Amino acid sequence: MTEPMEASTSGGRADGRGAEEFRSVFFKTRVLSQAKGSAYVEFGTCKVMVGVFGPRQSEVKLGFTDTGRLNCEVRFTTFAAARLNKAELGALESSAASALQQALEAALQLDKFPKAVFDVSALVLEGAGWAGGDTGALVCGASLALADAGVEGLDLVPGCGVSKTAAGELLLDPSPEEAAAEEAGLVLAVLPQLNEVTLLSVRGRWADSELQAGLELALGGCAQLRAHMRDCLLAALAEPRAPA
Fold this sequence. Notes:
Elements lengths: L24 E5 L7 E7 L2 E12 L11 E8 L9 H20 L10 E11 L8 H14 L10 E6 L5 E3 L3 H5 L3 E8 L4 E9 L3 H30 L7
Helix pairs in contact: 1-2, 2-4
């Protein structure tokens, strides 16, 4: 368990944060006894639970492959997706699962698990309130769950977002209200130790210099998150694992 990343009261944002501060962030692993590895993540009001299952034998009849596979599924509770119809919910869940898989695959050493499949099942208990806003929490949660499951990887994968206001100010980890009023935004996931981007989603209009500044802000945010994710895993190692 890690302590929340508390916001200060010195900033100019509606919730009192500075432009480069996260909302309260919380991580905990080993939350699902039925899963090989699991994690619970909060980014402000966004709440995500992730379980990793497997490895299991691949059912695809394509012969031997020298790498394993990652199968990602994302579901939203009725509460988290109350404003969406069935078609919109299906599209959101599919898009979130694709983004999660893209963010994670480059970090995992799946060549060590030939013909095997790892299933990553994520449940958004409470959504971020804006398109793409759940991605950072999902990526952090899935990366922690995979590490908790003992799946070998090159690094932990943190993810976070940045919004650009109409006045050109860059805001780390935007609230739903900030994202709704933004002129542009981005979501980034990285391998911090390798300085490698695994996911980048950009929306709205950016000048080149603004985009560079936005990416640097998101990279700094991901570095902060990685440190807290590492602390969470180290704390879990000091605790006995409950029997399945």
